Amino acid sequence: MAKTGTTSQESKTDSASSGTQELPAGSTTTASRAGALERAKNAVRRPVRGKDAPEPPSKGDKGGDTIVYRTAPERRPRSRALTFALVIAVLIVSGALALNLTTGALDRLNPFKGMFGSTEIDRSGPAVLQSIQDLGQFEAASGYYELVVDVEKDVKPVPSFLAGERTLFIAAGSVDSGVNLSNLGDGAVEVNADRTHATINLPAPTLSAPTLDYDRSYVYSQDRGLFDRAKDAFSDNSAETQQLYSLASQRLAEAAAETDELRDRAEKNTRAILEGLLEPLGFTQVTVNFAG
């Protein structure tokens, strides 16, 4: 008994020296509750993961109130735009597949499939040669042109939105340049006695009529008033189209005649061809002169 009392006395002494007061099992104080709540808040604010995470109190712990807390899993932000784009793509692909399957099924179930069809029969007769024309024109060069024809018609004093039109026409075509060899006189070709020197006198190159490229010529834009639109609804505008073609051909001819580039190229090519024809025949010098 004396020994037990001594032990109790020593424990009281140790408790007093450490500055703490031993509480009976199961008791709770305001300080311990506040400390536990503070620890829980800190744990929520700064969740600790891995090996440094605090262990929950064991069942045999007779200390203060036991507070168990769990931290929410960390979520990664997702892009709403990416999700929306994926959903739209899936819907489009699904709709296309469904439409394809539906069309194929309806085509297979069609009882009239193969009963009706269209065929094209060509009953055109053979071409008949009407005439032959001798050509003495040597085409030595060809130029391809493209231009914009801007035509506007105003009806004064009526506003343009009621009457009038403006048309932008893209014109494309070619103009050839050549030498006419059909009217050469007796003195057009001169050869010396040794037949080593030849002189050829030719007329100046001329420009042919423009050839409009209908595949690449088209109306780019056309603005018309209300009255002109109503009139076109009851009439044929083929005459206006023909006027555009004629005006485009005129503009192409003017563009080719503005410079001598096409005619100079025709002279150069004609001279080169004649020299290539006569030099193998023993002519060491070939001179080609153009009139004008």
From TrEMBL:
Keyword Transmembrane helix assigned: yes
Residue numbers spanned by region Disordered: 1-72
Keywords on record: Coiled coil, Membrane, Transmembrane, Transmembrane helix
Biased composition (Basic and acidic residues): 49-64
Record's keyword annotation contains DNA-binding: no
Coiled coil: 245-272
Bias-annotated ranges (Low complexity): 25-35
TM regions (residue ranges): 81-101
Composition-biased stretches (Polar residues): 1-21
Pfam families the record matches: DUF4230
Name of the protein this chain belongs to: DUF4230 domain-containing protein
Origin organism lineage: Bacteria, Bacillati, Actinomycetota, Actinomycetes, Kineosporiales
